[in-house]
Backbone:
């Protein structure tokens, strides 16, 4: 079994202790090689130590986790952010497909995040840059979304997405230019995330960008015809909501 190294940066000593104890209990292949209580101390540590994974608190006494990242010339490690219930930060994490843990940390969620880490070999610098951009420009609407495909991370324009289709735990994105991207996240996650971006869940397996709807055919159970000529079924349960949605367009 491969072993991994970890660093914890959090200004609360008890929080650092809890993570160390949880790693010993639930993830014996992770060794904590250092810890720090703030931005300055953490930046100094990371100049000398290059962990496989960094647990990074968002808000600390001498600045934020993002202030620390700005001090680094590169990010050669995976980051799992630790945050209190900050709705804006959490939404930014979700758009950037970044892993985060809410305080107090749930061992099951920690275990799940570490399992994702073990199965990922992607360089994530672009994601962190995108996340930083989102958080610094929080007054602007979210225009882009990070998608994990099997071999890369793609930052896409949200309004270039025509529709999304689910298959078990996979979601396929269909784009205006004809491209398709398959990601290992559920359609429900994207339905929640994109609800305020003009996307509508019309069926258990289908999420559509309403600006690409061409017409709604009421016969034969009811279906939408999209501008790319695809036919999307509308579930019986969703039909009244779809009718109301179309009236608002």
Residues:
């Amino acid at each position: 079994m491969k072993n991994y190294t970890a660093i914890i940066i959090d200004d609360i000593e008890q929080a650092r202790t809890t993570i160390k104890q949880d790693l010993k209990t639930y993830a014996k292949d992770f060794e904590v090689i250092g810890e720090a209580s703030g931005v300055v101390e953490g930046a100094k540590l990371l100049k000398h130590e290059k962990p496989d994974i960094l647990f990074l608190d968002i808000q600390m006494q001498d600045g934020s986790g993002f202030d620390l990242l700005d001090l680094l010339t590169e990010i050669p490690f995976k980051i799992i952010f630790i945050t209190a219930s900050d709705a804006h930060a959490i939404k930014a994490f979700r758009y950037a497909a970044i892993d985060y843990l809410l305080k107090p940390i749930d061992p099951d969620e920690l275990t799940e995040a570490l399992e994702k880490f073990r199965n990922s070999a992607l360089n994530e610098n672009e994601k962190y840059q995108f996340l930083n951009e989102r958080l610094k420009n929080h007054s602007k609407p979210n225009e882009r979304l990070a998608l994990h495909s099997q071999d890369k991370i793609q930052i896409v324009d949200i309004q270039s997405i025509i529709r999304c289709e689910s298959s078990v735990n996979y979601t396929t994105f269909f784009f205006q230019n004809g491209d398709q991207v398959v990601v290992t996240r559920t359609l429900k996650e994207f339905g929640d995330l994109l609800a305020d971006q003009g996307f509508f869940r019309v069926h258990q397996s289908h999420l559509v960008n309403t600006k690409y709807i061409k017409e709604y055919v009421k016969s034969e159970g009811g279906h939408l015809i999209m501008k790319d000529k695809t036919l999307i079924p509308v579930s019986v349960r969703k039909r009244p909501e779809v009718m109301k949605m179309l009236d608002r367009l």
